[in-house]
Amino acid sequence: MNTIRRKRKKSAEDWLVDGVAYGFALILMVSILLPFMQVVTISMSPASVVNETGFHLFPTKFNFSGYEQISTDPNFWHSYLITIFRTVAGTAAGVLVTVLTAYPLAKSNLPYRKFLMMFIVFTMYFSGGMIPKYLLIKELHLANNFLVYILPCLITGFALIITRNFFMGIPAALEESAKLDGATNLQVLFQVYLPLSMPVMATISLWYCVQHWNSWMDNMLYVSKKSLYVLQYVLQTILTNGQTADMEAAADVLVHTETMKMAALVLSLIPIVCTYPFLQKYFVKGMIVGSVKG
């Protein structure tokens, strides 16, 4: 049987709300797109064009000497590998610890559950501060250690609450059925809960991934070994000083400083830009479903 659907005629208020929403989305898109276009354009432009025109959105001449110059810097690529390893290890450890913590907190019969949740929420608003954290890391001998990138970032309160709320939405009958078949708690978690939790897993994975990829402050505070420098700290040094130490030593630097900076920025964005489309389809669902319960 054919179903005839009649479209509701939009009122003036509907048109106004739609116009404001689309206008706001357009302004937001332009504010994001324009700086990104400028970065890409400058990274592909010769120094003479950058000096003459400054801000421009589309390249008039192409020159990839900025990419060539940054690609010859071994420190840049070593920090790239360190950052990739940090992101993969940190994301895997963060998701595992978050899941193992959220699962018991999703059970209504867990003793002191409300107190534990209040304690977790408290840490989202208040922290010990930079100096106590520095002293703690120093006493734990984590300074100049790769683990300083992983251990302090193992879990975040917001990711834990989103995951716990998502687990609370899974029917308890599934767990009871699995336990009647002899499953343990870990088997229930990994064989029943996790296959049903792809949206929230993708969501918190993306959070941890971006957090680790963009972090550079911990490098500046706790790490002085050059072999442990992460990409964002090297990038911050390039943006601040204009050139890496090795390039400063060279007398014949041919590449415009701004060109090299923008080329480094573009190269640092590639992994995140490539990762996001694969996780984006789960992101909205994970956020909505994980936020419906308090």
UniProtKB/TrEMBL annotation:
It comes from the Bacteria. Keywords: Cell membrane, Membrane, Transmembrane, Transmembrane helix, Transport. It is found in: Cell membrane. It is a multi-pass membrane protein. CDD domains: TM_PBP2 (cd06261). It holds the Pfam family BPD_transp_1. One of its GO terms (biological process) is transmembrane transport. InterPro entries: MetI-like, MetI-like_sf. One of its GO terms (cellular component) is plasma membrane. Residues 80-278 form the ABC transmembrane type-1 domain. The keyword Cell membrane applies. The keyword Transmembrane applies. Belongs to the binding-protein-dependent transport system permease family. This is Carbohydrate ABC transporter permease. It comes from Lacrimispora sp. BS-2.
